[in-house]
């Protein structure tokens, strides 16, 4: 095979796809893997910042960067596009105010699907600290799907809750 033929065979066809197709493909990956695509080529350097699905799970995080700092960085460097799906499954984040901030960032970016599992034991495996859902979750106008996978304190407002919610899944 000649050098010209080899270049044709090895051509990067994925990078030639439209951004929307790349976003869709990347939306099936964990956010840690999506961010790593910056090393593929110049074309991919900023693609990760527009992927409409954010998937954070500290049980699978190798701790190369502290998990809360990683989420802070992703949300800070992300562009202003809407977030379709925000999944947060955490057993180690103890700063519940920080989690509220992350949820607020997703809500400000018109989140449609919210998938939460927040557990923290604070060194005592028998006594889980319970996360209080912020009121903004109940009043989010774009939220269509809410999945709760752990115990939460729910102080819902008296009116205006879940205006467009189509699916609620609660597991205790």
UniProtKB/TrEMBL annotation:
Protein name: Putative F-box domain, leucine-rich repeat domain, L domain-containing protein
Lineage: Eukaryota, Viridiplantae, Streptophyta, Embryophyta, Tracheophyta
PROSITE patterns in UniProt: FBOX (PS50181)
InterPro entries on file: F-box-like_dom_sf, F-box_AtFBL13-like, F-box_dom, FBL60-like
Highest rank taxon of the organism: Eukaryota
Domain F-box: 11-47
SUPFAM superfamilies: F-box domain
Coiled coil: none
Transmembrane segments: none
């Amino acid at each position: 095979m000649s050098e010209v033929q080899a270049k044709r065979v090895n051509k990067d066809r994925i990078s030639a796809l439209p951004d929307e197709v790349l976003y869709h493909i990347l939306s099936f990956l964990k956010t840690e893997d999506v961010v790593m695509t910056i090393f593929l080529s110049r074309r991919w350097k900023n693609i990760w910042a527009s992927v409409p699905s954010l998937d954070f799970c500290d049980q699978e995080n190798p701790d190369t960067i502290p998990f809360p700092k990683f989420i802070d960085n992703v949300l800070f460097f992300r562009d202003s596009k809407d977030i379709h799906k925000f999944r947060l499954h955490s057993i180690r984040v103890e700063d519940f105010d920080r989690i509220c901030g992350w949820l607020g960032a997703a809500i400000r970016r018109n989140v449609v699907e919210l998938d939460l599992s927040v557990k923290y034991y604070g060194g005592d495996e028998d006594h889980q600290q319970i996360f209080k859902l912020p009121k903004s979750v109940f009043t989010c106008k774009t939220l269509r799907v809410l999945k709760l996978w752990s115990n939460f304190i729910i102080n819902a407002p008296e009116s205006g809750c879940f205006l467009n919610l189509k699916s609620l899944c609660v597991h205790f």
